[in-house]
Amino acid sequence: MPSPSAGRRRADGRLRAVDVEGTTAVVTGGASGIGRATALELARRGADVVVADIHDERLAETAAAIEALGRRALAVRCDVTRDVDVDALASAAFDAFGAVDVLMNNAGIAVLGPPHRVEMAEWERILQVNVLGLVRGVRAFVPAMVERGHGYVVNTASVAGIWAYSWDAAPYITSKFAAYGLSEALARSLRPLGVGVSVLCPGLVHTNLGETARFSGVPDEFSGQWSYFPPEMVDAAVAADEVGPMVCDAIADERFAIFTNADDAARFTWWRDDIDRSLTDSIAAAPAPPRIV
Description:
With 293 residues, the protein is α/β, with parallel strands linked by helices.
């Protein structure tokens, strides 16, 4: 008996990906930044959207903006670190729309500080949001996609998940490497079953991530010194509104890796070509971090 996805494959072996028009999408972290931009772009392309976030006011505003585009919206308060919240999100989405075709696991936070001093509670917090939040989304929504042999998952990682861009954010980089690895593993396991997978690897994007960013293990006398962004990343920064169309185009093309800047795609190639050289050159090009014991 052929698999449910057998008739949906193209000549190159990839799936004929989800046509967004007429689908239902769920976006976590969907009330601001990249999540909001993608939710609105999905609506522009004909999807109904379930927006999940912990910010009630922004949730209501984003849902209203989706409805103003002529699509149905459902706003659900959801903390992705809580199993009960993510399960309730899935129940609300299925009850309202019957099925979910696109899942974007986008909720994320940042923690910065010397890796040898960051408190364990902060390590656990960022992994709960940036890694296990994705896992909870997959567990809640993907079984129904696998059963139908149809669906699409987008996980938000970062360029921080493909190369350690700085010395100031080891917890964030760790979590995003895990998000990238999970996404590649999902592609290996889900594509053969008819479910597409993409991973979003933004460079510097103008969002509100800084609102939730925390410093840990940085003494007061070093306040303001524990931060470094490579100048080339700052120069290439993009607006969040530019990212939504990139995500939707990748769904339409069934493209796995989504980069917000073309230079990041090239960097991924040459960084992996010679990791020792790449790491050595990057260390030499950046100022040394403060010596915090």
